Amino acid sequence: MPISLSHFEIKVRDLNRMKEFYTDILGFLVTDHSPPGGQKMVFLSCNAGEHHQIVLSESEIGEFSAGSVDHLAFRIGDLQGLRDLHRALKSYGDVAIETVSHGTTWSVYFQDPEGNRVEFFVDTPWHVAQPLRFPIDLSKSDDDLIASTEEKIRSLADFQPADRWFQRHRQRIDPRAK
What we know:
The chain is α+β, with helices and mostly antiparallel strands and 178 residues long. Helices cover 28% and strands 33% of the residues.
């Protein structure tokens, strides 16, 4: 099963300062941000093939330490691979597992034996504004999971085919890209 590192989330105290640093100094582009009233998050990328490589998530002192990594995320090839991982985690024993969709992915979150939070995911064929999170049932067939996810996100902000969103994203990263 091919696995590739996708992104990580950093807990921060001053979201605007960190966003300016990552965009103005390091050259990342803002690809999404949370709407007013929720947890303050900014999604950043400088890779035309990744919606986000870094998520900055504002944190209160005492709530996960600011400056710490929230989780590591790995992309895997397909839903069967995600189901196989889920089954392996369940057989391991005492592992808390969350199965969710972000509209753009189907994800399995868990903590490794030393408490590091990890996400494995498969991309959906859609883009929708982030952050978004809702539970999913990996025991559903591929067709049922695809249909139920699309039904849940179709009316949400910025819903569109992922390839259309990535085409615009590639042009933002490299205006010469076609």
